[in-house]
Amino acid sequence: MEIFTTLFVATLGASVLVQLWLARRQQVHVGTHRVQVPDAFSGRVALDEHHKAADYTITNTRFGMVQLVYGSALLLVWTLGGGLEWLDQSLRGFGFGPLTTGIGFMIAAMLVMGLLELPFDLYHTFVIEERFGFNRTTPGVFVTDLAKQTLLMVAIGTPMLAIALWIMAASGDLWWLYVWLVWMCFTLVMFWAYPAVIAPLFNKFSPLENETLKARIQALLDKCGFRSKGIFIMDGSKRSGHGNAYFTGFGRNKRIVFFDTLVNSLEPEEIEAVLAHELGHFKLKHVQKRLLSTAALSLGGLALLGWLAGESWFYSGLGVSTPSDYMALMLFMMAAPVFSFFLHPVMARLSRKHEFEADAYAVVQSSGHDLVTALVKMYRENANTLTPDPLYSAFHDSHPPAPVRISHISGRLQEATTGRAL
């Protein structure tokens, strides 16, 4: 067995074992604390709601463990088991040129991978989400969404793959830099165009009609110096009972989007507080920082791929006999997550830092008390566990655990009260 093969298998095995161990910790920790609502949420969350959140979390965690093992086994089948090798040799047999073969290989591999993961999507939507009262997706909507996603992947992915593979073949040793520049331009265009072009293919976005709420939100936007293309209500209830709010778009094409489920469950002052938190991400330049970090990581990744693509052991170590630009790209996409798993706590920590900062901004610009009540409602109605295992959360959660986040907001409120008293 080659050295790189050994390293790949050992890293994959270690990451799977660590993830299974973390998942087991999560199950035990949540199950142990299922019997009682945490003191910080006493009187705000009923015991039966706490039980539901615990059961929902444990069920999803157990499901994730099965999905992890299945996905890891498929990864080995695709690589060392010869799956990619077989697909590559089969397509080469048609006698097409390298560019056409490469595009066909990438698209075919992605379609098959999606098909193999489809049973898990179906089970999660129509069994787990249904069992806990969240699913509102009909089979017709599910199939339509799947068809749209597939067509979008082909329509958008094909020209991007063609450009990337052409650059790889024609641009010499620095191809990775030119591909990175194209990728970043594409990312910015998609970030700008998503709210107006892609999102409406899946959901209906209606302008906010509640004039009182609209005036309240506009006053907050003016106070924070934020301009957007509008405030929209998304028909999230068409697919799920979960609620959320987000900003989308870039530059002058920014939009504020509330799920209809969220608007129906929160009071106007609570909606304002949630919006103030989201505004914090923009005012504190979190979006720009995330774009810069994404740019840096993608640049580093493509530079690494630029080196690996010229090394024969990279291909043979992952079960491929014939090097090619498209195979290098596919192998890197499949192997990189294995080696980057242990960086998850670092990325999650940075994300949680941004959440704390946005909460602090909301306390100043709106009402911290209303933010707390809104978050508690969202935890309750989305069945988010109030007692995650700290170590599991450190690896997997981009947002702070509920007790930690509420405590942080309460601390900011106390600081503000003390400051005013002085």
Question: What is this entry, summarized?
Answer:
The chain has 422 residues and is mostly helical. The protein has helices at 3-32, 47-78, 83-92, 98-131, 139-170, 175-198, 211-224, 260-265, 268-283, 286-308, 312-316, 325-340, 344-365, 368-381, 390-396, 402-421, and strands at 205-207, 231-234, 245-248, 255-259.
Your description of this structure?
The chain has 422 residues and is mainly alpha-helical. The protein has a domain at 3-172 and 305-346. It is 72% helix and 4% strand. The mean pLDDT is 91.
Give the helices and strands, then pairings.
Blueprint: H1 3-32, H2 47-78, H3 83-92, H4 98-131, H5 139-170, H6 175-198, E1 205-207, H7 211-224, E2 231-234, E3 245-248, E4 255-259, H8 260-265, H9 268-283, H10 286-308, H11 312-316, H12 325-340, H13 344-365, H14 368-381, H15 390-396, H16 402-421
Parallel strand pairs: 2-4
Antiparallel strand pairs: 1-2, 3-4
Helix pairs in contact: 1-2, 1-15, 2-4, 3-4, 4-5, 4-12, 5-6, 6-10, 7-9, 9-13, 9-14, 13-16, 14-16
Features:
mainly alpha, 4-stranded mixed beta sheet, 4 strands
The total of beta strands comes to 4
**N-to-C SSE series?**
HHHHHHEHEEEHHHHHHHHH
**Number of helical elements:** 16
Biggest sheet details = 4 strands, mixed
**What is the structural class?**
mainly alpha
| Radius of gyration (Å) | 24 Å
Determine the mean pLDDT.
91
Task: Choose one word for the global shape.
Answer: globular
C-alpha end-to-end distance: 70 Å
Helix content: over 70%
